[in-house]
Amino acid sequence: MSQSEIKSPAFHAAELRSERVRIFGVLAFLTILVMVLLIRIFLLHNTVLNPHPVWNLVLVAVIGLYEYLMLRLVNRALRKDREFPRFVWFTGTIIETSLPGIGVAWLYTTEFGFSYRPFANPVTLLFFVFIILSILRLNPWICRLAGITATISHLAAALYLGWIPPTLGRPAPETQTDVSHFAIILLVCGFVAGAVAGEIRKHVQAALREAETQRKLDRVQHDLQTARDIQQALLPQAPPEIPGFTIAGWNKPADDTGGDFYDWDAMPDGRLIIILGDVTGHGIGPALLAAACRAYARSSFGANKNLPAALSQINAAIARDLEPNRFVTFAGVACTPGTGDLEILSAGHGPILLYSTSHDAFIEIESQAVPLGILPEFSCGPPTKIQMKKGDIFLLTTDGFVEFENPAREEFGMLRLKEAVRASRALSPEEIIKSLYDAVLAHSSGTSQQDDLTAVLIKRV
User: Fold this and answer.
1) What is the pLDDT of residue 157?
2) In which element (H, E) is residue 95 found?
3) How many CB atoms lie within 10 A of CB 261?
4) Do the Cβ atoms of 404 and 452 come closer than 8 Å?
5) Are residues 5 and 11 in contact, defined by beta-carbon separation less than 8 angstroms?
6) Over the stretch 354-365, which tens digit does the pLDDT of each residue have?
7) What is the DSSP string of 113-179?
């Protein structure tokens, strides 16, 4: 028995509940035994075979009282969630398997000869009852102790009744050797019961470990769902209202939580800043970094109207939170109300597309800097400035779209991305994003999502 098993509260509780079942089994057997004795005494008037019916009942009553007291102790330990003393179980096993020996020695049938008296007593059946039910104590050593005690008790009772052990090499009557055989059977039964108890113990421990693992998984799932709810609550809940533009954003993490995020807020000069970021990886770790980066971005763009200065401030803050193997691709887009003017600064983020309705063509916006968190000092080229015409579409997505693979490991790619936008260009931003996702799903043919998907779409109206 390992130390981890001894300290397991769940296993202690399982042992106590199993002990209760064992006690109920003993009490049920004693009840049947009493009923049989009463029928023999009062209905059949058959007391010739046993001149000590009252003492039989007294012995049964003593055993029953002892088991009742054990039941009270077990119930108290269960209620108070306390460990049951081991010495009580071992002591109780010795007492229980010794009592049948007392019955064999004192409550024998006088009609039988001395050589038959160790067997001609129903009390001998209690040896096997206690050995078999000791299995429910889930301790192999207790079962072995029950077998050893029963063997010694039976031999002692036989010696008291006049049995003489056979001498090796000399012929002996069958009744003389049967006592030895019966004792060996009791001993073997104890060790067999111990083997069975050991196997049952393993299964109980495995079931408890599985149940504990499931409880931990349920708690983790609950915590992850809470984290997902919090992360989704941090995303914008309604599109921004800005003259000349309609804007929509959408996010679907690969796990319960993800490393993608988007946001929009007002800048000090009245422009609307739209941001989209992608922390490497997905799961709870990148989700926490994404929340931190979003907070840094709000603070920086709320105090700066210059995109390079804001991103430099974000880079300095997020670099302290990132591990060496992590970084954040980031894009900021400043929209000037009513004019169609956009100013774009990308730190290693893509794809970024502008679809021109008048030319029916796409322009890919290149990145002006390395991702955030890679270098301690942020440096970048000048932001890209464009002017959107009526019907033009500006699209920010994370790489989860273009890298989404089908069963043949073929990526969705930029070409399909552009075609999906072109095919739905007359729709609203929300509907265009939905059409884009539908196209990705159709391409995937059931392949599971491996990376977070995030998109922000700006349409000039």
Assistant:
1) 83
2) helix 86-106
3) 29
4) no
5) yes
6) 999 999 999 999
7) -TTTTTTS-GGGHHHHHHHHHGGGG--HHHHHHHHHHHHHHHHHHHHHTT--PPPTTS---HHHHHH
| 394-to-247, 351, 360, 388, 400 alpha-carbon distances in Å | 9, 11, 13, 8, 18
Q: Are strands 245-252 and 453-460 parallel, antiparallel or unpaired?
A: antiparallel
Residue type, 418: K
Q: Note the pLDDT of residue 121.
A: 67
Give mean pLDDT, residues 138-154. Answer: 91
Bridge partners of 260, per DSSP, are 278
Domain boundaries, the chain: 3-216, 236-460
Residue-level pLDDT at 46: 56
Reported in sequence order, the residue ranges of 221-339 that DSSP labels E, i.e. its strands, are 245-252, 260-266, 272-279, 328-335
Partner residues linked to 226 by β-bridges: none
| CA 165 to chain CA mean position, Å | 59
Q: Are 93 and 134 in contact (CB under 8 A)?
A: yes
Angle value at C-alpha 326, between 258 and 218, nearest 5 degrees: 35
| Strand 341-347 relative to strand 352-356, pairing | unpaired
Cβ contact 403:337 at 8 Å: no
Distance from C-alpha of 290 to C-alpha of 321, rounded to nearest angstrom: 11
Radius of gyration of the chain, Cα coordinates, nearest whole angstrom:
41
CATH code at 236-460: 3.60.40.10
Backbone angles phi, psi at 179, to 5 degrees: -60, -45
If we measure between CA atoms, which residue out of 422, 356, 396 comes closest to residue 261?
A: 396
Task: Give the bridge partners for 206, in sequence order.
Answer: none
Helix (H) or strand (E) holding 385: strand 384-387
* Tally of CB atoms within 10 A around 423: 13
Written as one letter, the residue type at 303 is: A
The predicted model scores a pTM of: 0.62
| Phi/psi of residue 357, nearest 5 degrees | -65, -40
309 by DSSP, 3-state: which?
Answer: helix
CA distances from 404 to 97, 127, 440, 447 (A): 70, 70, 7, 9
Closest CA to 107 of 154, 58, 56, 61: 56
Question: Nearest to residue 451, comparing CAs of 275, 294, 259, 293?
Answer: 259
Four-CA torsion 381, 382, 384, 386, nearest 10 degrees: -170
DSSP structure string for 265-282 = EE-TTSPEEEEEEEESS-
Number of Cβ within 10 Å of residue 113's Cβ equals: 10
> Looking at residue 444, what is its pLDDT?
93
Two structure tokens written together for 130:
């206690």
Q: In sequence order, which residues have a C-beta less than 8 Å from that of residue 92 and are 6 or more positions away?
A: 66, 70
